[in-house]
Amino acid sequence: MQSSVTITKIAAALVKAQLEMGNAVKDAVNPFFKKSYADLNSVREAYLQSLNKYGITALQPTCVIDGVNYVETVLLHESGEFISSLTPVIVEKINDPQKHGSGL
Questions:
Q1: For residue 96, what pLDDT is reported?
Q2: Among 22, 24, 26, 36, which residue is least crowded by beta carbons within 10 Å?
Q3: CA-CA distance, 38 to 58, in Å (whole number)?
């Protein structure tokens, strides 16, 4: 995890936002397993309004470090404070753009 030098404002805002967040709705169905799940849009709807209300935006740029592709998740507060983390993009073929897109 990476962060700005201070995180007091973003930490306080995250606590307030989390108090208002609900669970993502399991409104999609996986026909193979016959199970319902919360798709990406449902997850986004569960957190976005609360984060934005308290001055937080969520960003997910991609980057390459030492030849490895990553998605960086950044929570950025209106004060300039931030918290971020990296997740590697796992793919079968490194130079296949469609596999990369699926990995994202």
A1: 79
A2: 22
A3: 19
In our burial notation (b when 16+ CB lie closer than 10 A, e otherwise), range 45-70 reads eebeebbeebbbeeeeeeeeeeeebe
Please state, in angstroms and as integers, the Cα–Cα distance from residue 53 to each residue in 18, 47, 100, following that order.
Answer: 11, 10, 33
How many Å separate Cα 41 from the centre of its chain? Answer: 12
CA–centroid distance for 37 within its chain? 17
CA 61 to chain centre: 10
Q: What counts of helices (H) and strands (E) characterise the chain?
A: 3, 7
Q: Does the structure show a pLDDT above 80 at 100?
A: no
Are 68 and 88 spatial neighbours (Cβ–Cβ below 8 Å)?
yes
Is 11 in contact with 3 (CB distance < 8 Å)?
no
Quote the tokens at residue 64: 């390459």
